[in-house]
Amino acid sequence: MKITTGFKSFDKRFGCLKSKEVTLIAGRPGMGKTIFLTNLGANASINNRVLFWSLENSKEYLGKKFNSPKMQINDNIELSKEELIKTILDNHIELLLIDYLQLLKISVIELKKIAMDCNLCIMLTSQLSRDLEYRDIKDRKPKLLDLQNTLNNNHAITDFNNILYLYQESYYNVDCSEKCIELFSNTKSSKFLFGKNYGVLIN
Fold first, then answer.
1. Fewer beta carbons below 10 Å: N end or C end of the chain?
2. Prediction pTM value
3. Strands 162-167 and 22-26: what pairing?
4. CA-to-CA distance for 127 and 113, rounded, in angstroms?
5. Which residue(s) pair with 126 in the sheet?
6. How does pLDDT run along the chain (203 residues), one tens digit per residue?
């Protein structure tokens, strides 16, 4: 099963989301990880059953910021692996979005097994080491080493099927005229502009 994200550039350059795969979206705070994930979930929920598991923000907060009646939101940070699986199966979830990795008590290996057994796609966000903040302002785009320095013993680079990064140059460079979020991998890149509502992305 393939899931379109509703972002044409994303689907064209990175491909649609695939069931039985775990995709990581990594970035420093303020880069737009939650905004990106909620927008993607809202888009995907038009044609697919989507569950957004928020480990940082409350369901009420997200409900006020993002209007997506079809996307289910769960903000129970104590949700066990067994409870998560039951929620997925009971609601026939096809796409699970998790925000974010460092607050997750389930290992990525366990997530991969859930993705395989339940035949769904999983995408989650991750913070990055603050070490990149000490690099030259022109060299603060995330790198694989930044992610390696962030992951603890419960996770490894090889645990993920896909790794993507988020970056906003205007966050560091006030002279940057392009106010957008850049999503990129080692070989591909796509940019998202903010709509009139700051929480809405246009691609």
1. N
2. 0.93
3. parallel
4. 23
5. 26
6. 899 999 999 999 999 999 999 999 999 998 999 999 999 999 999 999 999 999 999 999 888 777 778 899 999 999 999 999 999 999 999 999 999 999 999 999 999 999 999 999 999 999 998 888 999 988 999 999 899 888 876 688 899 999 999 999 888 888 787 788 999 998 999 999 877 666 788 87
